[in-house]
Write a structure and sequence with these properties.
Strand content: 25-35%
Helix content: 25-40%
Distance between the termini: 34 Å
Number of helices: 5
Order of helices and strands: HEEEHEEEHEHH
Amino acid sequence: MADYKDKLAKIALKRGTILFSEELFKQTVGHPKYFVIIGEDDEGYKGYFYINSNIHECIQHKEELIKLQYVIREEDYPFLKYFSYVNCATLMNFPKHLLKDCIIKNTVKIEGELKQYDLDNILRSVRDSDIYSPKEKKTYFK
């Protein structure tokens, strides 16, 4: 079973994969989170964006950050209870090998993949944004 999960984790850890964890973000965020893989750097870190149920109040008046809150609908993603926001304004990263281990240990679950049109729109918006450096764009959003 572990070999099967290892192979599944390797296949699943690609751009557009939506994951969920109840444990992984307890210390940093304080609650379970959905997140979507957006890219990978040369060091083996997966870049990802959180999926949130609301836009955080600290960015509601920052136009450049609001533009990077991408709406996804619950009818397109059955695991969501309501429409949500992919927070494309904050690029996070996590070591690929640890993320793979979390999938094998079942502390991170594979929920699905972004629809192609959502992924294309997200990539277009982050590539056009001024908040990311040319290096980040080349590394994670190419």
